[in-house]
Amino acid sequence: MSKPLRKPGEQAVPNGLPHSSIFNKADMGRLWSLYASAPGDAASVRFEPGALLLAGKGRSPADGTVLTQQVGDRSFEVTVELALRGESEGGLLLFFNNRLFLGMGIDGRRMTSYRGGKAAYWPEPAPPARHMYMRIVNDRQIVTFYYSLDGKEWTRHGVRSQVTGYNANTIDDLLSLRPALFVSGAGEVSFRRFVYRAL
Q1: What is the pLDDT along the chain (199 residues), one digit of tens a residue?
Q2: How far apart are CA 70 and CA 78, in angstroms?
Q3: Burial class (CB in 10 A: 0-12, 13-18, 19+), 187
Q4: Containing H/E element for 55?
Q5: Residue 15 Cα distances to 11, 51, 90, angstroms
């Protein structure tokens, strides 16, 4: 759905909705939405030049600040750069709702992997870091996580996930599994250069 459709009989005109974002204020509302937000939750979103700052709450993606984006491609890759500020955990997810999501987060001491809406039992041996690049690839319901300290050399998570069951037929919320950024804890996280690529 992110690729152009041929216009019958005439030359094609600009079309489609780019999903990548450098986090201009204009992107908000057009691409992104806060999940299950209360009226005052808009204050948890701030901007700096080239960066989105999300304030945390709760203890995990299940009750934290979650910013989602609806996409229509069956296969895609999402990448983002993030940096922690204060006592927080931040990361990248594929998010259905607060009970069903998968992805990864860092808190400066360790990386936590999430599957099935909860922290995975086996920790990923990522180095302690407060700044990291994260990538999720969803290749026709097979999901793979990657992380990098410099945005050049990438490490693949040891476990992949089959996510066909993460859908509206099983949960009945009439939602979809979509890319998301999250922050939990008392601090905030700076996100830069969200890149979406249809596969």
Answers
A1: 677 777 676 665 565 678 998 887 767 777 899 998 888 888 999 999 889 999 999 999 999 999 999 998 989 999 999 999 999 999 999 999 999 999 999 999 999 999 999 999 888 999 999 999 999 999 999 999 999 999 999 999 988 999 998 877 766 777 789 999 999 999 999 999 999 999 9
A2: 12
A3: middle
A4: strand 51-55
A5: 12, 26, 33
CA atoms within 13 A on the CB side of 1: 8
DSSP line for 117-167? TEE-SSPB-PPP-SEEEEEEEEETTEEEEEEESSSSS-EE-S--EE-TTSS
CB count within 10 Å of CB 83 equals 17
CB-based contacts of 74, cutoff 8 Å, min separation 6: 140
Instruction: Give CA 103 to chain center in angstroms.
Output: 8
What are residue 137's DSSP bridge partners?
77, 144
Element (H, E) at 65: strand 65-69
Helices (H) and strands (E) in the chain, counts: 1, 15
Q: Do residues 75 and 197 make contact, with C-beta atoms less than 8 angstroms apart?
A: no
Q: How far apart are CA 177 and CA 199, in angstroms?
A: 16
